[in-house]
Amino acid sequence: MKLEIGQSAPLFALKSDEGNEIALLELKGKNVVLYFYPKDDTPGCTIEAQDFTKKIKEFEKFDCVVLGVSKDDMASHCRFISKYDLAFNLLCDEQGEVCEDYGVIRQKSMFGKKYLGIDRSTFLIDKMGKISQIWRSVKVNGHVEEVLEALGTVN
């Protein structure tokens, strides 16, 4: 299913790096930045996570929660957060169900080998649970600033 701006964001409930479950429904009344990334502790993913961390106070000014999602397990997320002192929760979608719901799985190629992986994508979800912006095939440099700018138009 291809998601579009204005649609209700697919509901999810996933374990976080802290072991608790975070559900989108429980975040109603807050803006949510839900960003999907390929793998913990890889170059682009690390830069993106650090960029969100550097700007976390600005997101909080907009009553916004930042959540990262990958198919990594809780132990991997905990190491990643600890190593880089990340300031937000990472969610474990080990089976890829939420990735599928948000349409971020695509065929990739590495060293000539094709595989299915996460297409770096970000969804800005408003306080009513509607998708207000979508970024697909994200280029890391400058992305967090783009998200903040869009967030300013939501409030």
Question: What features would you describe in this structure?
Answer:
With 155 residues, this protein is an alpha+beta fold. It has one domain (8-152): Glutaredoxin, CATH 3.40.30. It is built from five helices and nine strands. It has helices at residues 43-54, 56-61, 74-84, 97-101, 143-154; strands spanning 13-16, 21-23, 31-36, 64-70, 89-92, 105-110, 113-118, 121-125, 131-135. A seven-stranded mixed sheet has the order 2-1-5-4-3-8-9. Strand 6 (105-110) and strand 7 form a beta hairpin. The mean pLDDT is 94.
Secondary structure blueprint with pairings:
Layout: E1 13-16, E2 21-23, E3 31-36, H1 43-54, H2 56-61, E4 64-70, H3 74-84, E5 89-92, H4 97-101, E6 105-110, E7 113-118, E8 121-125, E9 131-135, H5 143-154
Parallel strand pairs: 3-4, 4-5
Antiparallel strand pairs: 1-2, 1-5, 3-8, 6-7, 8-9
CATH homologous superfamily title: Glutaredoxin
Main pleated-sheet profile:
7 strands, mixed
CATH fold type: Glutaredoxin
Helical region count? 5
In order across it, which strands form the biggest sheet?
2-1-5-4-3-8-9
Structural class: alpha+beta
Low confidence ranges: none
Q: What is the CATH-assigned architecture?
A: 3-Layer(aba) Sandwich
- Morphology: globular
- Indicate the mean pLDDT: 94
> What are the secondary-structure elements, in order, as H or E?
EEEHHEHEHEEEEH
Summed up:
The protein is α+β, with helices and mostly antiparallel strands and 155 residues long.
List keywords for this structure.
5 helices; 155 residues; single chain; Glutaredoxin; alpha+beta
